[in-house]
């Protein structure tokens, strides 16, 4: 390599990196040149065959009774200070590396951050990323982890078995305030503008998750935002977090994006399943026999028993 070229290489990579950094904040869900339909042009993985989110169609989910529950350690009350940022797309909380999740196959994942996807101003507009039987839920919570065999999130994010996301849906009915969310929600006012950070003192992620952590859907997919890397082992909890309407409204109306527009509907549309199979470690309720069906089944058994006796 001649000396001019050698000098040019770092310059060129700086230029390329600069371009990437700029796109990093430029992508959007629905507006401008880099809306989600155009993500694949700048982030090729976004056009891949194993993308997330997906629709979880329960009749197609494979019940795997051998799939063990997740083991979450360090999720309970943590002392300390935890930064929370408005990154222009969502609110993100930095998590301590003492929070760990052990998957059914024994892989240990270390928590990195937690963020949210939500809908719009009216509580009728929902914003989860995964849908269940085509139904979009109100909010989706993502706890992002990296595989503990890598020394940091930065290393793991490019590895084929690098990441795992624990996801949960929020449900809103006429529930009273969920006090486990009060501190988080009151801190949103401090990070109205993108780039602003605030600090949560003390954190209990266990209490911010659904009561039942045992039942989940699992499949292999991707990050749901650019660069859409296809290295995410997804665990979507079946049970719901319950928030009050006011709490949901605050999350939907507190933060502004880079154009000073309220961040709303920050979810990606569902992606094709292609050849993937979604597994669950609990049976589909629709498949377990309803009480009416069981009533008729008992009648049939009675008739068979009657016939058997009559024939003897
Ligand atoms: C957003 O609003 C703030 C405060 O009014 C202002 O300082 C900033 O320049 C605005 N940004 C844009 C992109 O309009």
UniProtKB/TrEMBL annotation:
Recorded GO CC terms: cytosol; extracellular space
Database matches in InterPro entries: CA_dom (IPR001148), CA_dom_sf (IPR036398), Carbonic_anhydrase_a-class (IPR023561), Carbonic_anhydrase_a-class_CS (IPR018338)
Pfam families, per database record: Carb_anhydrase
Primary localization class, coarse: secreted
Enzyme class: lyase
Protein's UniProt keywords contain Transferase: no
Role summary: Reversible hydration of carbon dioxide. Its role in saliva is unknown.
Name by which UniProt lists this protein: Carbonic anhydrase
Originating species: Cercocebus atys
């Amino acid at each position: 390599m001649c000396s001019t070229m050698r000098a040019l290489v770092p310059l060129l990579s700086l230029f390329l990196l600069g371009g990437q950094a700029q796109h990093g904040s430029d992508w959007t869900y629905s507006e401008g040149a880099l809306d989600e339909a155009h993500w694949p042009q700048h982030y090729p993985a976004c056009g891949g065959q194993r993308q997330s989110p997906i629709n979880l169609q329960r009749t197609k989910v494979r019940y795997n009774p051998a799939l063990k529950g997740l083991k979450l350690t360090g999720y309970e009350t943590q002392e300390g200070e935890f930064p929370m940022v408005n990154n222009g797309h969502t609110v993100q909380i930095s998590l301590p590396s003492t929070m760990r999740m052990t998957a059914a196959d024994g892989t240990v994942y270390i928590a990195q951050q937690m963020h949210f996807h939500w809908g719009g101003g009216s509580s009728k507009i929902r914003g989860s990323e995964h849908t269940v039987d085509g139904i979009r839920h109100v909010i989706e919570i993502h706890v992002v982890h990296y595989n503990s065999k890598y020394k940091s999130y930065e290393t793991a994010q490019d590895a084929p078995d690098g990441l795992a996301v624990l996801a949960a849906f929020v449900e809103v009915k006429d529930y009273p305030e969920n006090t486990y969310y009060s501190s988080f929600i009151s801190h949103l006012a401090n990070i109205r503008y993108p780039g602003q950070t605030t600090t949560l003192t003390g954190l209990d992620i266990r209490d911010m998750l659904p009561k039942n952590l045992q039942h989940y859907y699992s499949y292999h997919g991707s990050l749901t935002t650019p660069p859409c890397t296809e290295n995410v082992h997804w665990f979507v909890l079946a049970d719901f977090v319950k928030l009050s309407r006011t709490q949901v409204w605050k999350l939907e109306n507190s933060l502004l994006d880079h154009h000073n527009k309220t961040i709303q509907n920050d979810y990606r549309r569902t992606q094709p399943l292609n050849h993937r199979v979604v597994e669950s470690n609990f049976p589909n309720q629709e498949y377990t026999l309803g009480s009416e069906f069981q009533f008729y089944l008992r009648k049939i058994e009675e008739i068979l028993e009657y016939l058997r006796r009559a024939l003897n």
